[in-house]
């Protein structure tokens, strides 16, 4: 092993440590912050979708109740009876 190689490797290790502290650590913090922001945006969007799904489920429940309600059968029967009534004859 060449005696000059040891100081060169030592200097390279020191430079790598400095480079890592100066450039890599802030870059990693920036990436972490970006991931946190994306996670919060995804969580907000998921909450919006959940609220919209809940509203749609409530509307479907109301429609099911209307369709299965016996009152609708009664109103349909009344309408049918109105249609079956003979038309009044004009008096001449």
Counted by DSSP, the helix tally is 2
Q: In terms of structural class, how would the helical and strand content be classed?
A: mainly alpha
Assembly type? single chain
Number of domains: 1
**Major sheet attributes:** none
Strand content: under 5%
Q: Kindly state the mean pLDDT as a whole number?
A: 84
Shape: rod-shaped
Number of strands: 0
| Alpha-carbon distance between the two ends | 130 Å
Percentage of residues assigned to helices: over 70%
Supply Rg. Answer: 39 Å
Question: Which series of helices and strands comes N to C?
Answer: HH
Polypeptide structure, described:
This protein has two helices and no strands. The chain is mainly alpha-helical. It has one domain (8-82). The termini are far apart. The mean pLDDT is 84.
Write the layout of secondary structure elements.
Elements lengths: L4 H64 L1 H15 L8
Keywords:
92 residues; 0% strand; rod-shaped
Concise synopsis of the structure shown:
By secondary structure, the chain is mainly alpha-helical. The chain is built from two helices and no strands.
């Amino acid at each position: 092993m060449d005696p000059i190689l040891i100081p060169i490797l030592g200097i390279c290790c020191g430079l790598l440590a400095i480079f890592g502290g100066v450039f890599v650590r802030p870059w990693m913090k920036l990436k972490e912050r970006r991931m946190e922001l994306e996670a919060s945006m995804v969580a907000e969007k998921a909450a919006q979708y959940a609220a919209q799904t809940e509203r749609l489920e409530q509307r479907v429940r109301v429609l099911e109740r209307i369709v299965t309600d016996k009152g609708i059968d009664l109103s349909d029967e009344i309408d049918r009876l109105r249609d079956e009534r003979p038309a009044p004859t004009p008096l001449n």
